[in-house]
């Protein structure tokens, strides 16, 4: 169930809304004149969301590469990763 507050609530109860966002890791939807206006969330939740979006993007890039035939044997990839680790690049 989404947590919906008015812009007045945000102004008057900022600390309560901040505490809720940090403890629940859920956004609070802010209305202005009875209509949706903002989504407020903790920085930790925002960073996690951005990380998920980046991961989804990288997965899409990988899927496209496979469709285009751009793939290598696992043994070759693992060899490159191990070399990168030993060279200090990874």
Short description:
The chain is of the alpha+beta class and 90 residues long. It has helices at 7-12, 14-24, 43-67, 74-86, and strands spanning 3-6, 28-32, 35-40.
What are its keywords?
90 residues; alpha+beta; 2 domains; 4 helices; 3 strands; 17% strand; elongated
Account of the protein in words:
- The chain has 90 residues and is of the alpha+beta class.
- The protein folds into 2 domains: 3-41; 45-86.
- It contains 4 helices and 3 strands.
- The protein has a 3-stranded mixed sheet with strand order 1-2-3.
- The longest helix is centred in the middle third of the chain and has 25 residues, at 43-67.
- It is elongated.
- The relative contact order is 0.10.
- The model has no long low-confidence stretch (mean pLDDT 96).
Write the layout of secondary structure elements.
Layout: E1 3-6, H1 7-12, H2 14-24, E2 28-32, E3 35-40, H3 43-67, H4 74-86
Q: Major β-sheet, in short?
A: 3 strands, mixed
Number of domains: 2
User: In oligomeric terms, what are we looking at?
Assistant: single chain
Shape: elongated
Strand arrangement within the widest β-sheet reads 1-2-3
> How much of the sequence is in beta strands?
15-25%
Low-pLDDT stretches = none
Overall pLDDT level: 96
What is the number of helical segments per DSSP (H or I, 4+ residues)? 4
Q: What is the element string, with H for helices and E for strands? A: EHHEEHH
The total of beta strands comes to 3
Over the alpha carbons, how many angstroms does the gyration radius reach? 22 Å
Please give the alpha-carbon distance between the first and last residues. Answer: 42 Å
Helix content: 55-70%
């Amino acid at each position: 169930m989404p947590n919906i507050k008015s812009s007045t609530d945000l102004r008057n109860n900022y600390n309560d809304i901040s505490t809720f966002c940090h403890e629940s890791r859920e956004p609070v939807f802010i209305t202005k004149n009875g209509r949706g206006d903002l989504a407020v969330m903790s920085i930790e939740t925002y960073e996690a969301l951005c990380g998920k979006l980046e991961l989804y993007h990288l997965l899409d890039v990988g899927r496209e590469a496979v469709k285009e035939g751009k793939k290598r044997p696992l043994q070759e990839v693992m060899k490159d990763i191990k070399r990168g680790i030993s060279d200090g690049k990874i």
